[in-house]
Structure formats: structure tokens, C-alpha cells
Amino acid sequence: MTQRNNKIADLTKIALVAALYVVLTVVLLPFSYGPLQFRLSEMLNTLAVFNKRYIWGVTLGCLIANLWSSMGAVDMIFGTLQTLAMTWLSWYVGQHLRSLPAKLGATVMICTLMSWAVALELHLVSQVPFWLTYLTVGIGEFVVVVIGAVLIWLIARTVDLSK
Fold first, then answer.
1. CB 32 within 8 A of CB 135
2. 42 assigned to some structural domain
3. What stretches pass through the bilayer (predicted)?
4. Is 140 domain-assigned?
5. Residue 24: which of 58, 75, 71 has the closest Cα?
6. Would 163 be classed as within a structural domain?
7. Which of 104, 97, 89 is nearest to 47 (CA)?
8. Is residue 162 part of a domain?
9. Are 155 and 161 in contact, with CB atoms under 8 Å apart?
10. 33: helix, coil or strand?
């Protein structure tokens, strides 16, 4: 495959991940935003351990999906930056781990712990209690990223997601 074809393939994969993130967020709109959040699209965060391109797909998907957020530009900026930070951190930590289960487990922990940023955003904009919101958003994040880790692990057994 030529370098040009590789770039086209990478851009296509980024666009597909972004589109999937948007669809999974918008289809479950009532559960995707707010202090009681179950954003199923966050399971795609686990893709970051395979290739840096997925960081951009998930981040772009988050930016577009946050167009539907009641917090508007605040969520588009800060929610998207938080997604960029946690997917990059997941990729970075994954580079220092050997086994796929360890990489996926680290991603689950990183994404769950970093849900503080969403809790802070909701606290500042909507005046909801920070710690309770951190707990509820963190539980939702944990559940969906674990689901994503299991699904991605199963997919990775037959599909090379790093290419």
C-alpha cells in the first residue's frame, strides 16, 4: 500500500470512529449528557491503545456529539479537551504495557478517574454537587468503558486494530 493510500485509510478509520461515536451518543441522547450519564460511545475510548489515529476519531466524534449538549460551547471545548487528554493518556500508558488486557484495564481506570473533568464542568455550569456528580458520572464511565474493553478485546482477537 502506498503512503497516499495509507493516509486515506487512516482518515477513513478516523471518520468511521467519529461517526460511530456521534451515532451512539445521539441515539441515546437522554442518557448521554448530565449528572446521570451513560454515554455508550465512551466505550470507543479503548481503541486508543491500538493506534494514535483512534484518539483523533474519538475526539472528533466527541466534539460533534457535544453539539447536542445543553451546555453548548462549554461542553464542546472542555468535554472535547477532556476526551483528547484521556485517550492520549490511555495510548501513552498503553505504550508501556505489554499485554492487551493490561492496556485495556489501564484505559478503564484512566477514563473512570478522569471523569472528574465532566463532574467539574457540570458543577460549574449547572451548580450540581461535584462529588456526587463525580461518583455518578464515574460509575457510568466505568461501566461503558468496561463494556468497550471486553468488546474491543473480542474484536481484536480476529481483527488487527493497530493497522
1. no
2. yes
3. 14-33, 54-71, 106-125, 131-156
4. yes
5. 58
6. no
7. 104
8. no
9. yes
10. coil
Report pLDDT digits (tens) over 99-158.
999 999 999 999 999 999 999 999 999 999 999 999 999 999 999 999 999 999 999 999
* CATH code for the domain of 61: 1.10.1760
pTM (whole model) above 0.70: yes
What's the CA gap between 129 and 119, in Å, rounded?
8
Where in the sequence is the domain holding 150, given as residue range(s)?
3-30+37-156
Tell me the pLDDT tens digit for each residue of 18-52: 999 999 999 999 899 999 999 999 999 999 999 99
User: Number of folded domains in the chain?
Assistant: 1
Cα 95–Cα 97–Cα 98 angle in degrees, nearest 5? 110
> Three cell numbers at 126?
449547572
CA 7 to chain centre: 23
Residues 68, 133, 78: CA angle, nearest 5 degrees:
45
